[in-house]
Amino acid sequence: MDDPLVIGGERFVSRLIMGTGGVGSMEALEQALRVSGAELTTVALRRVDPASSGSVLEVVERLGCRVLPNTAGCHTARDAVVTARLAREAFDTPWVKLEVIGDDRTLLPDAPELLDAAEQLVDDGFTVLAYTNDDPVLARRLEEAGCAAVMPLGSPIGSGAGIRNPYNLAIILERAEVPVILDAGIGTASDAAIAMELGCDGVLLASAVTRARHPAMMAESMRRAVEAGRLAHLAGRIPRRLYAEASTPVEGMPDLRRRSRAS
Amino acid sequence: MLNGRPTRLRTGVTVAELVARQVGDPQRPGVAAALNGQVLPREAWPRTEVSDGDAVEVLTASQGG
């Protein structure tokens, strides 16, 4: 079935976007990324660590994945904009996963700074995929600012708490005209499937795979969950009912009540 | 300051030399440099000399969500 995810004019077969943070070794990361089937993967920009073994960039490029630099750790619009520009220099891409954090304990986005950064980056020619709260108004403002995708959280980053407010997500999905990617909070395969069943265009996750006991196995389960959820969404689920509705027809039932033989 | 550490350097050292010192090959992809909080494009590295009190950041890809 030809059902690509289109972001900023680019087509992706896979609707699973993988983060690369949290995995112990480059080998484990490479294996998990390969199995996930992801075509878009996030990387961060950090001070050079001469002690680090292997390069995450080499792994991502070897697998033919497109690099999506993030602005993780930025707390102000200014820091995020400079980080995105540095990433554009480093990775030769105008794409950015914009993340502006307002609070270290929850890692929830700082709405005013996020919107400010999004406007500046769009003006500067970036393709902005904005990590946002599950707030329909903010999502709409980000879309109006020119973001190529809005990426509401299911629950806080790394919490594995799943989708805490499916109703807000439904409102965002109903109104959005750019792709909506569920970003953050996925704990296990069913969370990813639910996101896709609700109508999300894709799922971005990292910890759920990289911190799983068997990252590659979880990567495979996420790939299947995203595909299954997407199919279920397209197929159209049945309504929820309080009472049963027989699937076997009632017509044509024989009358088997015991009767006295006619004499 | 080089990547947040006070560093004593000879006069006239360029950003290109500092990048090479940090990552080996200055042509290596996936590297960016900032001078005093501003992006310094790769083309400008060889001709940009670092002065006393400057802050240089040499950054590269790392794992991230």
Main pleated sheet of chain A:
3 strands, parallel
The tally of helices of chain B reads 1
Q: Distance between termini of chain A?
A: 65 Å
Major beta sheet summary of chain B: 3 strands, antiparallel
Distance between the termini of chain B: 28 Å
> Fraction of residues of chain B in helices?
10-25%
Report what the structure shows.
- The complex is a heterodimer of chains A (263) and B (65).
- Chain A has a single domain, classed as Aldolase class I (TIM Barrel, Alpha-Beta Barrel).
- Chain A has nine helices and ten strands.
- Chain A is of the alpha/beta class.
- The mean pLDDT of chain A is 94.
- Chain A has helices at residues 26-36, 56-62, 77-91, 111-123, 136-144, 166-175, 189-198, 207-210, 215-235, and strands spanning 5-7, 10-12, 16-18, 40-47, 66-69, 95-98, 127-132, 149-152, 181-183, 202-205.
- Chain A is elongated.
- In chain A, helix 1 packs parallel to helix 9 (215-235) and helix 7 (189-198) runs parallel beside helix 9 (215-235).
- In chain A, the strands form four sheets. Chain A has a three-stranded parallel β-sheet.
- Chain B has 65 residues and is an alpha+beta fold.
- Chain B has one domain: Beta-grasp domain (Ubiquitin-like (UB roll)).
- In chain B, 14% of the residues lie in helices and 25% in strands.
- Chain B is built from one helix and three strands; from the N terminus they run H-E-E-E.
- Chain B has one helix spanning 15-23; strands spanning 31-35, 38-40, 56-63.
- In chain B, strands 2-1-3 form a three-stranded antiparallel β-sheet, covered by helices on one side.
- In chain B, a hairpin with a 2-residue loop joins strand 1 and strand 2 (38-40).
- Chain B starts with 14 loop residues before the first helix and ends with a strand.
- The mean pLDDT of chain B is 89.
- The A-B interface holds A 19-23, 29, 42-50, 52, 55-57, 60, 67, 70, 72, 82, 85-87, 89-92, 157-158, 184, 204, 206-207 and B 3-4, 22-23, 29-34, 37-39, 41-42, 57-65.
